[in-house]
Here is the input.
Amino acid sequence: MILEMKVPSPGESITEVEIAEWLVEDGDYVEKDQAIAEVDSDKATLELPAEASGTITLKAEEGDAVEVGAVVCLIDTSATKPEGSDAPAKAEKKEEAPKKEEVKPVASKTYASGTPSPAAKKILDEKGIDAASVSGSGRDGRITKDDAVNAVPSMGTPTGGNRGTSRSKMSMLRRKVAERLVEAKNTTAMLTTFNEVNMTPIFELRKQYKEDFKAKHGVSLGFMSFFSLAVVRALKMYPAVNSMIDGKEMLSYDYLDISIAVSGPKGLMVPVIRNAENLSFRGIESEVKRLALRARDGQITVDEMTGGTFTISNGGVFGSMLSTPIINPPQSGILGMHNIIQRPIAVDGKVEIHPMMYLALSYDHRIIDGKESVSFLVAVREALENPVELLMDNDVKKALEM
Here is the structure.
């Protein structure tokens, strides 16, 4: 029996996918549920499992864009599994015997073949001029001392280096990210406001509790839980930042779904922490770890990256000191974290060294006023600089569930 395998729908509103990579070869024997291909949609990379065991015939090439529901391969379910093989057999490529290199006689160069005389070579070397760029006036093209003295260095682009180029097709996910970034710049009135935060209180809390926290909960007490809960608090204070424009209306949400921008093998991924307002420090850290691992392993689904109401992006992990993050449409705000640097600041009239971080809030000025955006960012900073009172209700052990 010949089974036609069709492209399943990876999510609502997605009409086509791209064959990113075949994990098997034409004619291989595959087992049911074995991953046979990776397909890119405009939101994620997903694995395509075999629907039955049998011999596979590929009907699409890597890089092909195929519509949802189209046949991408055939599986002959009547084929028997090759004997002596526990794993699906892959076509073995015979190694070709190395070809003997053809040895060509190399003509020995002489002065008559265009090389410089010893005196000319010394002059050319001092001037940094390649002898190949000098025309010799001597017999049979010999480069004389006078030729070297009169040679002028080229004022053009230096030659001799590698100037090759390469061209590769962007994945569907990368193309979609590019489209959304351009869309955000062209369709929103995006502005960015900045502030800085003293991370000393968070450093002290992590130093004191991180080992016990990890031993009890199995996850690290990172910065993301502090920032996420600080954002949750600020969004409750300024709900316009948790709103979106829908046509001529402003759509506001009574829940807080925080998108976390992470870098995956296929590009930027933005998984969503659902109902972050109901999560504790442990809940936030556990969810961040789960989503980051799924994004790294290419297992993240479209549903896990859809529907966020606000985004947090941490460019600091790559060493960014300051940036203007781009809004993730149709959201209206994104908070940018940056690297932490020991800097001198004034504290009670004295200069002290503290771990400092710049914060950036990009927002859609069409529905968020300057006063709201600045106040929102100040609220985030206040919570980060006073986490015990504003994020932990003055009970650290209870907040960390110790």
Remarks:
- The two ends are 59 Å apart (CA to CA).
- Residues 347 and 353 are 9 Å apart (CA to CA).
- The chain has three domains: 2-76, 116-150, 189-399.
- The first helix runs from residue 118 to 127.
